[in-house]
């Protein structure tokens, strides 16, 4: 598994990534998904990570970039057929 | 001014496997400059069966020396040697029902000097039979297929002879000098005909050629790194075919040790990997 930006989040990230890979390959790709089963684990991971992003001052950079992208997304993130 | 690079390719693997490899592509032997990958947002829409993911990658990077020569020291600040780490924000949407995945990656810093946006469109090819079915049954029924990846016992990608098409584009845009130009335009519009005294670095240059040079250097770099990105995906897909998810994860573990050791990436063309 890939490493987290924040070493203190590695453990919870690994737990989430493992859950996601299982859900993605065994449920989502087989078109059997009804909910994101790993959402609770993601919340834990997110909690750890958002702290780390804040301490490093990256959170603002990300939210600015994501705001800039909203219009782009509408244009590019859509099916072409 | 904008520069643009585009290429198309076909992976000899089924669409679901390619989407999985995309999520698992770091670390791989061609990407030991990628230090970390975090998922910062993920949303599954049960109605459309679309999965949206936002990830943050941290890459070890070096500004090309050609760019360093073009830029004033004051603009470079602390990283005057060009050694830097670069955050990359990646967004992807997978639609397993319709058989497409769209991705977009962009740099978070240095966007004033050069903003690089890389987009990829993965498509499950539409077969003749599907086209005909579509006419009679509508898209939904025709697009429905199996997952093709069995992680239960063997956990291997079945060799179904299926392929996935990918179109990659890289858009490069330099904004160097634009702020100064805007300021001048603003002061002129305000009736202030006097030229600003401190035009500094850009005094002797019109910004157009400078932007263009920086974009050209970025373009050259994008062309050089594209083959490595593809090789990285192929390594992950081969591991998946050979030994399933277990083999991919084992490979990642070894590649991660390489990253920690600060090891050099494999290179497809003998140049630095970016």
From TrEMBL, chain A:
Taxonomic superkingdom: Eukaryota
GO cellular component: a single term: mitochondrial intermembrane space
Family annotation (InterPro entries): MDM35_apoptosis
Biological-process GO terms, alphabetical: phospholipid translocation
Keyword line: Disulfide bond
PROSITE patterns per UniProt: CHCH
GO molecular-function terms, A-Z: phosphatidic acid transfer activity
Family annotation (Pfam families): UPF0203
Similarity comment: Belongs to the TRIAP1/MDM35 family.
Protein name as annotated: Mitochondrial distribution/morphology family 35/apoptosis
Organism: Lophiotrema nucula
Lineage of the organism: Eukaryota, Fungi, Dikarya, Ascomycota, Pezizomycotina
TrEMBL record, chain B:
Annotated ranges, domain PRELI/MSF1: 2-188
Domain of life: Eukaryota
Pfam families reported for this sequence: PRELI
Alphabetical list of InterPro entries matching this protein: PRELI/MSF1_dom, Slowmo/Ups
GO cellular component, one term: mitochondrial intermembrane space
Protein name per UniProt: PRELI-like family-domain-containing protein
PANTHER family: MSF1/PX19 RELATED
